[in-house]
């Protein structure tokens, strides 16, 4: 009987010990459990340190027609303090985020919402509207025959600096592509933090 009890208890104890999130220690030496419900399937971590930004982020894995993955292209503009992160065929990237240092004036999400509200061409609908993160659908007026476009905008702190991260304004992204870019924004952290 003890054998059967042990055999029943073993799977239960293994299951219970595997529950929970990843334990990390923060700067104050406090252990905390970090539970992430973001599914990064189909994405890979990309290090931005060689491009002058002490961070890494998840980027989508896009496969070309010949079966090999598209490389990640980073264009750094040291005058404007921006980094363009691109994955996909040149001129038709499926993942295109721009990271830029903030101007120090604050209210970045509100300012972006105000800019979108003053748009006379597109009507925006927010699919994700969190404190520092937006995913929105931009629609043309009914009957134009155009499909909807999706874009992302977010505010991320890396070290002591804040950065605005947004999709390329001229891109015509699907909802799936925009959600991948949203995950990219959510994953943008100092390399040791991912």
Range of strand content: 35-45%
Termini separation comes to 47 Å
- Total count of helical runs of at least 4 residues: 3
Structurally, how many domains make up the residues? 1
State the helical fraction. 10-25%
CATH fold type: Protein Transport Mog1p, Chain A
The biggest sheet amounts to: 7 strands, antiparallel
Anisotropy-based shape: globular
Q: How would the blueprint of this fold be written?
A:
Layout: H1 2-18, E1 22-25, E2 31-34, E3 43-47, E4 56-60, E5 72-77, E6 82-89, E7 92-101, H2 108-117, E8 123-130, E9 133-139, E10 149-158, E11 161-167, H3 175-187
Antiparallel strand pairs: 1-2, 3-4, 5-6, 6-7, 7-11, 8-9, 9-10, 10-11
Describe the structure.
The chain has helices at 2-18, 108-117, 175-187; strands spanning 22-25, 31-34, 43-47, 56-60, 72-77, 82-89, 92-101, 123-130, 133-139, 149-158, 161-167. The protein has 194 residues and is of the alpha+beta class. It is built from 3 helices and 11 strands; from the N terminus they run H-E-E-E-E-E-E-E-H-E-E-E-E-H. Residues 1-35 have low confidence and may be disordered. It has a single domain (42-193), classed as Protein Transport Mog1p, Chain A, CATH 3.40.1000. The strands form 3 sheets. Strands 5-6-7-11-10-9-8 form a 7-stranded antiparallel sheet, with helices on both faces.
Describe what is shown at a glance.
By secondary structure, this protein is α+β, with helices and mostly antiparallel strands.
